[in-house]
Model the fold of this input.
Amino acid sequence: MGRNLSFVEAIREATDQEMGLNPSVIVFGLDVDDPKAIQGTTRGLVEKYGRERVFCTPLSEDAMTGVAIGMALAGLRPIHIHIRMDFLMLAMNQLINIAAKSHYMYGGQVHVPIVVRSMIGKSWGQGAQHSQALYSFFMHVPGLKVVVPTTPYDAKGCLIHAVRDNNPVMYIEHRLLHFQRGPVPEQLYTVPPGKARVTVKGDDVTLIGISYMQIECLRAQRYLEDVDIHAEVIDPIWLSPLDIETIVASVCKTGALCVVDNGWTTCGASSEIIAQVAERLQGVRDVRVRRMGFAPVTCPPTPTLESLFYPNGRTIASEVYNLVKGHSHNWMPVERNDLKEIEFKGPF
Amino acid sequence: MHLIDAVHGVMGASAVVGTTIAHAVGYAYALKLQQKNSVVVSFFGDGATDEGVFYESLNFAVLKKLPVIFVCENNSYAIHTHQLRRQSNPNIYERARVFGMPAERIEDDVLRIYERVSAAVQALRISEPGPFFFECMTYRWKEHVGPNDDFHLGYRTREEAEPWFKNDQVKRLAEVIDARQRGRIEQEVETEIQAAFAFAEGSPFPDGAELFTDVFMEAD
Done:
């Protein structure tokens, strides 16, 4: 393998390679061709593929999502980019009433192969409207696929799959993952739905980290190791369709499941995963479960409150400790500086 | 509700008013990028021009000079609410013109519509920049949904409707066609409708297994 790229570079490379391969692939969204180039993920594309295939849009999320659908009906494969996931609320009618339903509603006569890239923010005062992770909205609706890659490897492979998929795909990035580095092959490859990844093997508890929370779970796994609790960490990668089999197999082994979401828990991805596991394992295996996610409040911008809003490696470790021990302890690991940088090593 | 005939270029309809205007614009963008000598026509009512997506779509279509013709059928009513109770300026074509495209109103005159829209299609086919906008004045004869009169509801009067009944454009067209040809057309249409009814009524309801068909399109 050998070659390390950042998440941003992996997205940029996947987009470039797919655009080079297929003239139907086009890219647009607010600021895709500005000097910052969406954190660098669209850098150089306008010079290479021209302003008809790479263009900035008016601040019109509703119509531009409709435009993407119209393009897809005419045979293009648009990638529509939103710097902030919070703005997707302006496009819900198009995404849910049209993109998700057209193939079914029109009896298979049309399909809508669009990729909607959107970003979740965190820290630096992102606050109420720049921090939301709303993927569970989209998981709720049949006809949409939802992917939340965490590694550069998956960033590339999932994006290539998303572009080639004949259905609408919500591709959701966390901004704190953008500068994570990890091995990424130069050649084209896909990471399709259907397979979650066991990132660390363990026997005592299953720990699922969604999106950026995968990083915090990897920290928690190290803290837990210090007290001889061996967590199996899983990255679901695709939330819809969800690979529940890999998760169920792990919980069957460990008997304890903690799902750490990068979103609110109520009606969220963590609730869905735990419900599916409970349905599969009731009467088969005794299982203890725990959800963690955003505090049930609006995200505060001040750092002192914001730090309480999100789970982190230490709070996750503490909760998992209680889960495994079966009752409440006041154990909380001392912060380890060597866990500040968590890198994805692979192999994948 | 979900009319489509993709083979003949009818690309869908949405119960959520105004939604498809943006699809027409995106389709036109694709045609231009693919250098196809084709045009898109977007049909919607006065109610759709209440929606934000209408304005966003017009802006983008003009910005990119797209080969699309917007046809607003203004029948004065969105369900049971008159346009003047919903819109501060009832001249929809004036609002469209502000975006910088040719926009005109055509009164209840089907031949004038044919003439003006044909000219717009010709212009787009020789690559003149689009879009074009037509506000076509018309009137809803029957209830919002269904085949009945609804004057008894009291939101509109028969007197308001009378001039439109008198100026029936279908009758007007029929009168300019030679009687034998007209008879033939009517027969053809009647036969087609009867065949459609026979087909629909003679077709079985779908098998239960079809519930799960077409949620996703499988890979090619």
About this structure: The domain at 4-183 of chain A is CATH 3.40.50.970 (Rossmann fold). The two ends of chain A are 10 Å apart (CA to CA). Chain A touches chain B through 42 residues (CB under 8 Å). The mean pLDDT of chain A is 95.
